[in-house]
Each structure stands twice: as structure tokens, then as C-alpha cells.
Amino acid sequence: xxNLNATEKxxxxxxxxxxxxxxxxxxxLPSERKIADQFxxxxxxVRSAIEKLCEEGILKTVPYSSPIIKGFKKLxxxxxxxxxxxxxxxxxxxxxxxxRQLIESEATKLAAINATEDEIKxxxxxxxxxxxxxxxxxxxxLKECSDADLHFHQxxxxxSHCSLFIRYYELIPKTIFSNQYFGFKYRTSLKDMxxxxxxxxxxxxxxxxxxxxxxxxxxxxxxxxxFERI
Length: 230
Prior knowledge:
With about 230 residues, the chain is mainly alpha-helical. The chain has 10 helices and 2 strands, in the order αααββααααααα. It has 2 domains: about 5-70, Winged helix-like DNA-binding domain superfamily/Winged helix DNA-binding domain (Arc Repressor Mutant, subunit A, Orthogonal Bundle); about 90-230, Up-down Bundle (Four Helix Bundle (Hemerythrin (Met), subunit A)), CATH 1.20.120. Strands 1-2 form a two-stranded antiparallel ribbon. It comes from Clostridium simiarum.
């Protein structure tokens, strides 16, 4: 193992152990010798990794002792010096939903064409579960409702058999979940959403791609309008 590769591996090792809580904030880092023995290397790459992490502010040097773990700096994405303000969050949500609208509408069209009978059954099961969960909205159990609704959307995406759309959904799970969650939280009526889900399911069962596209497009347009009004 080269010193460069060893330094990178040790740097990642220290960061991972800080993030998962094994190395506590304001405690001492294990000794250079101990880390070197663990990786079966000399102390040179360990020292290089520590120097790098000290420069980043993750560790703090202490004379004649192991460095102190300071952790990762908490960033304020909306500092006065940044071009984005808190008000921009609303626009970020709307832009994310517009992207989803284009992708999911096309994915729903493909699902209507490509989904197998078994996949349609899985989508319908998710659809029925999402309807069953709606009564929980009034009880304030928003996570359960948004989870069920998200599952319905995910099954449609998978049934499109398009690796690009499937990968997209895997890359931004937090964004998609927050869309679903706040879509329920600020919704004033569930009637339109239920009708849209019914139209999507009906189009999929008919294997009507164009109808499926319009149904999903209109469904997400309703959510976008909700976010624009918040």
C-alpha cells in the first residue's frame, strides 16, 4: 500500500468513526501508533492524515499529545454572504417538483406500456394502501401517509423498466420524501389527490400510455400549485 493510498484510507477511517460516533467530539484521537498498527503501515501516512484533518478543522492539534476531535463544521447554507436566502427554499421545492413532473409523467407512460401483470398487481396494492392510509392525515400521522404514497410512486417508477428513471429516484430519496410529506401537511383537500391516484391506476390497468402520462402530470401539477401557494 502506497503512503498516498494509506493516507486516504486513514483519513476516511477517522472521518467515518467521527460520523458514526465511535470517536467522540472533544475526546482524544487514538494514538498514531495504534492507528498505524491497525493499518499495518508506518506512522508517516497516519501523520499525513492527521495533518490534513487538522487543516480542515476536524481535528485540533495538541502539543505532545494526540489531537482533539472537533468534528465537522456545521454550515449555514443561508448565511448573509450567500446568494440564497430562506425564501428560496420554496422555489427549490417547486423546481424539484417540476423535475419530478417531467420524469414521473414519462415513467408512468412507460409503466403503462412495459409493466407486467404482476407489476400492475404490485402497483395496485400500493395504490390501495395509499388510499387506506389517507384517514391518518386527519389524525396528524403524516409520515405513514406520505410513506404509503411514496411507495405507490416508487412502484410505478420501477415498472417503467427505465434504468435512468429508477436511478434518479435512488439518488434523491430525501427530496422526494419531503415533497410527499409536506404535500400532505399543507393540503386542504384530499379529494383531488384520490381522484388523481384513481386516474393513474386506471390508465395503467388500461395500458394507455398517453392517459397515464396526463394523469401523473396533472397529479404533480396539483402538488406544485400547492407549494407555490405556501
